[in-house]
Fold this sequence. Notes:
Two copies of one chain form a homodimer. In chain A, helix 1 (about 15-25) crosses helix 11 (about 300-315). Chain A has twelve helices and eleven strands. The first copy, chain A, has a domain at about 1-120 and about 285-315: Isopropylmalate Dehydrogenase (3-Layer(aba) Sandwich), CATH 3.40.718. Helix content of chain A is about 45%, strand content about 15%. The first copy, chain A, starts with a strand and ends with a helix. Chain A has helices at about 15-25, 40-45, 70-75, 80-90, 100-115, 150-165, 185-200, 225-250, 255-260, 265-270, 300-315, 315-329; strands spanning about 1-5, 35-40, 55-60, 95-100, 125-130, 135-140, 170-175, 200-205, 220, 280-285, 290. Chain A is α/β, with parallel strands linked by helices.
Amino acid sequence: MKVVVDAMGGDNAPDALIEGAVQSLELSKEPLQIILTGDESLIKSKLNGKVSGLEIVHTTDVVSSDESPTSALKQKKNSSIAVGIKLQKQGRADAFISAGNTGAVMASSLFILDRLKGVSRPSLAAFFPTLREYIIVIDVGANTDCKPLNLLQFAIMGSIYVEYVLERKNPKVGLLNIGEEPSKGDELTREAYKLLSKSNLNFSGNIEGQDVLTGEADVVVCDGFTGNVILKFTESLRNLLLNYLRIYSRKKPRVKMGISLLTPFLDDLKNKLNYEEYGGAPLLGVNGISIVCHGKSSPTAIRNAIFVANRCAAQKIHKKIEKELRATS
Amino acid sequence: MKVVVDAMGGDNAPDALIEGAVQSLELSKEPLQIILTGDESLIKSKLNGKVSGLEIVHTTDVVSSDESPTSALKQKKNSSIAVGIKLQKQGRADAFISAGNTGAVMASSLFILDRLKGVSRPSLAAFFPTLREYIIVIDVGANTDCKPLNLLQFAIMGSIYVEYVLERKNPKVGLLNIGEEPSKGDELTREAYKLLSKSNLNFSGNIEGQDVLTGEADVVVCDGFTGNVILKFTESLRNLLLNYLRIYSRKKPRVKMGISLLTPFLDDLKNKLNYEEYGGAPLLGVNGISIVCHGKSSPTAIRNAIFVANRCAAQKIHKKIEKELRATS
């Protein structure tokens, strides 16, 4: 598959993007080609000569992180984002990833690739670490105000994503709510509960805040406001733990030895809590593969997002979503 | 002050409630008296004779944890909850705490004590541990669907609570949102941002999920759905860490020594993450003091909630809230 990487987006652009792309080509176990979109001479200056499997498509506009998505879409038709997504529309690539302006990536993906037939709202699905395996939470920020039907569709799209990308059959779906009983929650969750119960999904009922990181459900469904808050909350746990250790070892030098003995444990925990390990968030519901990465993404994060994009493209998960939604509507 | 403790509510009732009440009388640095409401002979059988400062008011009805709040209110007028709250209304007590049915405690508090003049929606404020000091999040579950004015009032009530109970002058208020800029979020948060900006509060703008546990704001304002999810999420971190340590030390026996050297650090972290250490959640906006505790509360949790109730009553924070709301409306 051919994955387009926006070389100009993100806090560490273009270095982290270029480095991540090169790493992914070196380490991929699947067939993989990369197109970098961005300033060609800048990108070339960062590469040590020609890299096998890597090409560059030169673009002139750059969308900044604080730019309005609609103005970026209208005024920057030659941006690394717009051109990158168009390559997929033209059949010259299979997937797109960007660590740039999330709103602009979402708006451009929706405008250029179009939404899949039957999808009311495309949504972002993100991996979360748990005590067991990774799970996903959907939506993590594409839709702040949702209707019950949106949540049902998030559950369908998320289940397909988990089934084909995490290779887990019949994933368990949990509805994030503030009580276990079907009667609990607000109007949105009560109505969504009914729709999910009637669906063909493996719906296990409401789950509460304390159940997210235990891995009770493979797919946690919620509105994009709540999902975005808990995504960022979870991302902050790693640094909090590190800061706390730092403060504590300063106060009590005698526990420093304990910390050094625990290095493998702490490294493992830090990795588990490191969102960079588990790549970006796909925008599910558009007619193609578009993955949004964290603005602070490192080369490792980009590399892992490229692997996820490659797998999504190979599995054609957008086509699977379209087929499933047609069957259930 | 005289604090009423519902002896019949919660997973560990009546033992944890009675034990917590006795501990609070032994350890309180402030003047304190306790009334236990519940089955008098049962309570007496658990006490070792008469306890100074402790009296019992016999009640016959018990509200179960899965009972509908409205039916409990209508049909169980002689419950440990209803009678306990009425004692405050009659001027025979100054505060009420319960680890029982949260909905029933909220409904009874609202019905019996009445809402304060000018308060559109009473709300629950909970302590959260941070790297620095405790902060509060308001609302954590009383109101799932909110209007911008509600969030403004949560901020006012929460600021007073932090000022007088945590003794922190001019507390910083943060609006929980999914972006830093005023234009980010849904309609609710965008409008609430405007109201908060125009208020006399020490409003520091939007804060995101990653900022909650760093202690950026002393008062984090959000709707009760989001607040409840992150409250339970945070409460789960302690057990997750413990389980993770357990799994890991089983796998790698050689890090066991490191864990034992780190015992003081881990105990400190566990305590920080232990919601039992920081008592219950007050229902702010009613004309009195009513505190909801976690259903699983231990004697320590009850003891700390009694201390918070005692301080709220001594400071008459409901009267301060009423005065402030009158001044700002």
